[in-house]
What we know:
By secondary structure, the first copy, chain A, is mainly alpha-helical. Chain A has helices at residues 5-9, 15-37, 40-47, 51-58, 61-68, 73-82, 90-101, 105-120, 122-143, 148-168, 179-195. The first copy, chain A, contains eleven helices and no strands.
Amino acid sequence: MSSxxxxxxxxxxxxxxxxxxxxxxxxxxFAEVGYERASFRRIAAAAGVDPALVVHFYGSKEDLFRxxxxxxxxxxxxLDRLADGPRETIGRRLAELLVGGLELPxxxxxxxxxxxxxxxxPEAAALVRETITRDLHRLxxxxxxxxxxxxxxxxxxxxxxxxxxxxxxxxxxxxxxxxSDVIDVVAPTFQHYLTEPLTPPAP
Amino acid sequence: MSSxxxxxxxxxxxxxxxxxxxxxxxxxxFAEVGYERASFRRIAAAAGVDPALVVHFYGSKEDLFRxxxxxxxxxxxxLDRLADGPRETIGRRLAELLVGGLELPxxxxxxxxxxxxxxxxPEAAALVRETITRDLHRLxxxxxxxxxxxxxxxxxxxxxxxxxxxxxxxxxxxxxxxxSDVIDVVAPTFQHYLTEPLTPPAP
Lengths: 203, 203
C-alpha cells in the first residue's frame, strides 16, 4: 500500500496518519450509510487498510464512533467563548456558529453522521444524547440559571431539525437559502430558548 | 389464515380488512426498521399474509410508503382549521395540534417512520419533502402573504427536531417533560416562524 502523502510531506506514513485515515473513512461512512452498515470491514476498505488495524487502533465500533464523531475541539471552544459576549445577542452568535459550521464539510459530516446513526441505532442514539447534552449544556448554564438543561435541549432540537431538513431531506426553499438568511430566521429561536421565560406569563 | 375479527364484527374478513392489516404492519415496520429494511416479505410476515397480497394491494414499495405514511385525514383537516382562529395564538394552537398529536400512537408512528425513512433513504426523503411541504404550506399561506414556503419549512424543522430528540434520541429532560410544558416552550417559536418578520429590522 503506497501513500501519496510520503512525497508531499517528506516523512514516512506513521501510525498517526493511518489512524487519521481510518477516522476520516469512518466519519464519511457513518454519515453516508449509518452506524449499522458502517462495518469495520467497509471502513477498512475505504481507508485502504487491513480490518485488523481498525480494531487495533479503535477497539470497538462504539469507541470508534464516539471518537471520530466527537464535536471538533474548535467548536467546543467556540461554544464556550459565546457566553463571554453580550447576552442579548447570544441567539444570533450561536446561530452563526452552529448554522455556519454546517456549511463546512467536516462538521457537517459529523453532525449528519450522528443524526443518521441515532435515527437507526439505539446505541448511537445514546452517544448522540451524551454529546448534545454536554456541548450545549455548558453554554446554556453560563447564560441562564433557570432550567439550563431544558434550554440546551431545545436549542438542540432546532439545530437537529434544521440539519435534517436542509441537508438530508433537502426541503426547498430551505436547502437553497443563503446561510445568512437561515441565521436570520433561527437566531430569535435560539435567543428565546436560551434567555426568555420557558413558560408563558400567567394570564 | 383465520381472522380473529370475524367473530367480533360478525362479518367475513374482506379485502378492506386485509388491506388495513397490511397498512398497519407496514407503518410499524417503516417506523421501527426504516424504509430499506422493511421489505415486502417482512411486511407480509408481520401482517400474516402472503407477500403476493402486498404487491396486489399496493404495487410498489414507494406507493405503499406514500399511502400508509400519509398525514392522517383528521390532521390535515385540523391544520386547515387552525387558520380560522386568531392569528396571535396560531403558534400555540399549532403546537397543541402537532406536539399533542405526537402523544398518540398512530400519528407518532407515522411521523417517526417518515423521519427514520428519510434519514436512511433518498427515495423516502422525497416523499417526506412532499408531504411536509404540502401540509404546512397551506397553513402558512393562510396566515401570511410574506414567504409562506419558508415559514412552513421552518415550522417543519422545529417539529422534526423535536420528534427526533423526544422520541428517537430520547434526550432528557425533554423525553420526560409533560406535553403541555413542551407546548409552552415551542409555541413562541411556531408563532415567530408563522407571523413575525423573517429578517431582523435594519439597525
